[in-house]
Amino acid sequence: MSSAGKLEVDVELKSPAEKIWDSIMNYANVFPKALPHQYKTIQVVEGDGKTIGSVQLVHYTEASPVVATSKEKIEAVDAAKKTLSYSVVDGDLLKYYKSFKATVVVVSKGNGSLVKWCCEFAKAGEDIPDPNLIRDFAVKSFQDLDAYLHG
Questions:
Q1: Can you give the C-alpha Rg of the chain in angstroms?
Q2: How far is CA 89 from CA 93, 99, 104, 133, in A?
Q3: Distance between terminal CA atoms of the chain?
């Protein structure tokens, strides 16, 4: 079992790419409102929450597997390509992974959109599983956001 790896998943959504992208860029405001069963609060602690270097402190509900809090730093943003990358810089996830970086890409697909989520990670120990639970949580977040926006 490798200590470093990568997971990818594509999520088809009914909402237009622009709506999904706007929600992701307004993560701190939108996600706790749209997904109160998953996100308690999201606080912007550095920057504006939308640009490179911004840091957000995320408090999850009990719906989140193994992670209660996470501090995430935006590493890259390309609004034209609707791409955002962030790293987890503090919180429960780092008990299991020495490093964890995720990238979200939103593309138009017909009248809806496709969200491509990918994470790169380095495990803190040999017995740590791949972060499939985190991937599944991300998928559910995007699906629930879509239902919120489309409903």
A1: 15
A2: 9, 8, 17, 19
A3: 42
Select from 115, 98, 95 the least CA-distant residue to 21.
115
Please report the sign of the dihedral spanned by the C-alpha atoms of residue 121, residue 125, residue 126, residue 127: negative
Please report the pLDDT score of residue 2 as a whole number: 63
Q: Quote the tokens at residue 97.
A: 């992974």
- Exposed e or buried b for every residue in 139-151, given b needs 16+ CB within 10 A? eebbeebbeebee
Which pair of structure tokens corresponds to residue 9? 């998943």
pTM to 2 decimal places: 0.94
| 96-113 pLDDT, tens digit each | 999 999 999 999 999 999
Integer Cα distance of 120 and 61 in angstroms: 24
- Mean pLDDT for 52-80 is 94
Residue type, 54: S
Residue 91 corresponds to which tokens in the numbers above?
A: 């919180």
Q: What is the mean pLDDT of the chain?
A: 95
Q: Give the C-alpha separation, 113 to 95, whole Å.
A: 34
CA angle at 87 for the pair 82 and 91, rounded to the nearest 5°? 135
